[in-house]
Every structure is written in structure tokens, then in C-alpha cells.
Specification:
Elements lengths: L15 E5 L1 H11 L9 H6 L9 H16 L5 E8 L12 E12 L5 E9 L2 E2 L1 E8 L3
Antiparallel strand pairs: 1-3, 2-6, 3-4, 4-5, 4-6
Protein name: MaoC domain protein dehydratase
GO molecular function, one term: fatty acid synthase activity
Pfam families: MaoC_dehydratas (PF01575)
Length: 139
């Protein structure tokens, strides 16, 4: 677990590479109840103008948040986390899935002693989450 005394503005979090597969989409759909066909039917997804089956935005958001919880060493340290959904993550029907690269950086110490961490999630070099940030309380 990282201590507040060891954190400075500008610190970069260890990067995280995440693979999202079609099996992940099935598990997430079952857990969330989101069975929208854009997350499982290639025909439907392309029929509505998407590049193919896409990951659930909330799944991408949750997975990207792992960069902060792993860095903090305690999921309970995350006081607030929010994102805007920018681009979809197409998930191919293969064993590799989609590779999402996640980075994070401490950008501010807030008046209440928490830290603001900006998070960037990219697929094929393009950002998929906009304005992603977390507020973290470290001991």
C-alpha cells in the first residue's frame, strides 16, 4: 500500500495493459444485465454503424479504474471516480480480444488531503475514455 507521504504531483502510476475478450463481454452482460446486442451480435453492431461488437462502456471504465486501485493498494481508497465515454472498444471474435492500454498520473493534491489522479485508456493509440479521473485518499 502506497503512503501519502510518498506521493507527489507528477508521479506516474505503473501502466496497465488489459485484454478484453468476447468471453469477458458475456460475463459482464450476465453480471450487469446489459444484454444489448451491440455487445454480442456482429450483425446487429455493424447494422447500427459500429465497427463490430463493442465492449460495454462501464466494463471499460471499471477495468481502467484498476490502475488506481492497484497503485493505492486498497480499492476503498478511491473516494470518487468518473469518466466520459469517448470511443467504443471493438472486441474481435478471436482469442486475443482488444488490448486497452491504461496510464495514470497524480495531478493535484486537494485541500482535503486527497490526490487527483488522471487516467488515460487507449485502444489502438486512440483515447477511449475522456476526462477520466479519480480522487484517492491515502494514509
Amino acid at each position: 500500500m502506497i503512503r501519502a507521504a510518498d506521493v507527489s504531483v507528477g508521479d506516474e502510476l505503473p501502466p496497465l495493459s488489459l485484454r478484453i475478450t468476447r468471453a469477458d463481454l458475456v460475463r459482464y452482460a450476465g453480471a450487469s444485465g446489459d444484454f444489448n446486442p451491440i455487445h454480442w451480435s456482429e450483425r446487429f453492431a455493424t447494422g447500427v454503424g459500429l465497427p463490430g461488437v463493442i465492449a460495454h462502456g462501464m466494463l471499460t471504465m471499471g477495468l481502467a479504474g484498476r490502475i488506481v486501485t492497484e497503485w493505492a493498494g486498497d480499492p476503498g481508497a478511491v473516494v470518487e471516480y468518473g469518466v466520459r465515454f469517448g470511443r467504443p472498444v471493438p472486441v474481435p471474435d478471436d482469442d486475443e480480444g482488444a488490448l486497452v492500454e491504461v496510464t495514470g498520473k497524480v495531478t493535484k493534491v486537494l485541500e482535503d488531503g486527497t490526490f487527483k489522479v488522471n487516467v488515460t485508456a487507449s485502444f489502438e493509440g486512440k483515447s477511449v475514455l475522456g476526462g477520466a479521473s479519480a480522487r484517492v485518499r491515502l494514509r
